[in-house]
Specification:
The chain is α/β, with parallel strands linked by helices. Helices cover 50% and strands 20% of the residues. Strands 1, 2, 3, 4, 7, 8 and 9 form a 7-stranded mixed β-sheet that branches. It has a two-stranded parallel sheet with strand order 5-6. The N and C termini lie far apart (78 Å). The relative contact order is 0.17. The structure holds (2S)-2-hydroxy-2-methyl-3-oxobutanoic acid. (2S)-2-hydroxy-2-methyl-3-oxobutanoic acid binds next to helix 4. The site of (2S)-2-hydroxy-2-methyl-3-oxobutanoic acid has 12 residues, from helix 4.
């Protein structure tokens, strides 16, 4: 019996330490993002994973899944899945979250921003906090904001210099607000998953699309499928790194601090590489044979005027108070 007791104690001890080891080593979190594996979204997500692995001594790992794979390819579904804890982490952009949180469209209202300083005053200021608060009600903790960027239009039919040039173009868009903006411009918009868009462009199912130069157009080689690009800066799209509330609540304070620091650093890096790739992007695209048109201030004003009905409709949807909060932050920049 003495041997039996020792045996039991030893066994219990072994089991306990095995459980501790597995608790400490088995944690691999899944991060979903909805662009391809060459984009700055992916690079920002991978950087976050490296920083987390370092900060936790390898106890927590992050595995990044591109093309919204974890949501069956449905880019708009990721946020809802994170909200209910089916996915741990997400890197996604404002427009993708609008089915769950319509207020996210505030960032992307047509011609809201004129420059990066104004953007940073909102994502890193009060509006970013307000939106993070609304996402929290849906079970998503926003750890940090990154950048998709100013969305520029590309197509295969003609150079876009004025709203009239958009007439009748079959445009792929990501979400509901852009349907209204494209309709205001007289185009023929169609909502489509990003992961299906390159094939659709190649096969001529649509004539064009709109996306940021540095974060998406260049890394995903959209220039291989399109002839014309206009830097009309019609809408800005932020991204964010978020974690499910359920996962967040399971962390102790020290782990939360590590996640916050890693997210801040990873999204700062992601913004930087997106802006760098955008700054050198027009020259790069011209080398690749794209016909790039850079509208004058007057021409931009004409696009802005034409998209005003969509601005007004969505300003109403997101709420005039929220729009005022954005405008107040922008005025400080
Ligand atoms: O689908 C798009 O166009 C993309 C990749 O920019 C977004 O996720 C909004």
């Amino acid at each position: 019996t003495f041997g039996g007791i020792v045996g039991k104690t030893a066994l219990a001890g072994l089991l306990a330490s095995a459980m501790m080891v597995s608790a400490a080593t088995a944690e691999t979190l899944r991060l979903s993002q909805n662009t391809g594996d060459t984009t700055t979204w992916q690079k920002g997500a991978e950087k976050f994973g490296e920083l987390i692995a370092d900060a936790t001594g390898g106890d927590i790992k992050v595995r990044v899944f591109p093309n919204a794979q974890l949501a069956g390819g449905d880019q708009m579904k990721q946020a809802e899945m994170v909200g209910r804890g089916a996915i741990d982490l997400v890197v996604s952009s404002a427009i993708n979250v609008t089915p769950l949180v319509p207020e996210m469209a505030a960032f992307s209202l047509p011609y809201l921003y004129a420059n990066y300083a104004q953007i940073d005053a909102t994502t890193q200021g009060e509006p970013g906090k307000i939106l993070a608060g609304i996402l929290k009600e849906k079970g998503i903790i926003v750890l940090a904001w990154g950048e998709n960027g100013f969305r520029e239009v590309t197509n295969n039919v003609r150079p876009i210099k004025s709203p009239a040039d958009m007439k009748g173009l079959r445009m792929r868009v990501a979400g509901p607000m852009y349907i209204d903006v494209m309709n205001a411009l007289g185009a023929n918009p169609q909502q489509m998953q990003w992961s299906e868009t390159l094939t659709a462009l190649q096969q001529g199912v649509v004539d064009g699309q709109e996306n940021p130069i540095g974060a998406v157009i260049i890394p995903q080689q959209v220039y291989e499928m399109q002839k014309y690009l206009t830097t009309w800066h019609y809408s800005y799209d932020p991204i964010f790194l978020g974690i499910s509330q359920a996962k967040w609540d399971s962390f102790d304070e020290a782990t939360k601090a590590k996640f916050q620091a890693a997210a801040d650093q990873a999204m700062a890096y992601q913004r930087e590489i997106s802006r760098e790739a955008t700054a050198s992007g027009v020259a790069f695209l011209r080398e690749k044979g794209i016909d790039v048109y850079e509208p004058s201030a007057e021409e931009l004003a004409a696009f802005k005027a034409a998209t005003q009905p969509a601005f007004d409709k969505w300003a109403q949807k997101v709420g005039p108070d929220l729009v005022s909060a954005f405008e107040a932050a922008i005025a400080t920049a």
